[in-house]
Amino acid sequence: MTATTTNLSQITHSLQQFTGADLTATLARLEGAVKGRTVVDCGVFLEQHHVGGDTLAAAGVMKTLFGQINVVIHALGILRCLPHILEPGETVDRVSLGAGNTGRAFDLETDRRVAEFKFIRWRGGAETIRQNGIFKDFFQLAAADNNKRKYLYVLGTEKPLKFLRGGRAMDSVLSKNVTLKADFAARYGDQHRTVRDYYRDHHDKVIIIDVLPWLPELAGMPDEDE
User: Fold this and answer.
1) Which of 137, 67, 71, 153 is nearest to 105 (CA)?
2) φ, ψ of residue 151 in degrees (nearest 5)
């Protein structure tokens, strides 16, 4: 990375010079303009159209930043929820802000509760990955061997609850996670054939809370995995 791509404003400016207002139109224009070019005038052409090493470096930096954006949202979301979650006198014991729980059992543990957070938007169709993730969090919270209250914080409760009350087969939900499947089988055998069966028996163990009233900034977030 060169000196011209050392901060976000410079990175953005460098990319905007290349992309213009409409990247598709810019690329189409370049496709036409590059025809007939030779090694003699390639250098001038690249300079005229902002196709420099700095621009490529900026794109590389931006890709790295975007690759980490879900982790950033997860961390910011948890921290901004704390003033709404914590009760008077309640103290944070530990928190996991990175990807996964980094060796910790849950995203948040206080002297009164344990909690998981899912800052993802549901599309409403076949969402097996999201469903599997929600079930894993719900199950692990419900199975936690402590006397603390268990919470699952999500962006909107309608679709997660529709899944948990639905008829998807447990074998399907657990099929991609060998460890979770073994744990579930050790606890319950085959008594729960569907997600609905399990949720019916354990719904009162975990409180599911919508965080959108606290984080309205995420209302327009694209439908992407966390």
Assistant:
1) 137
2) -130, 140
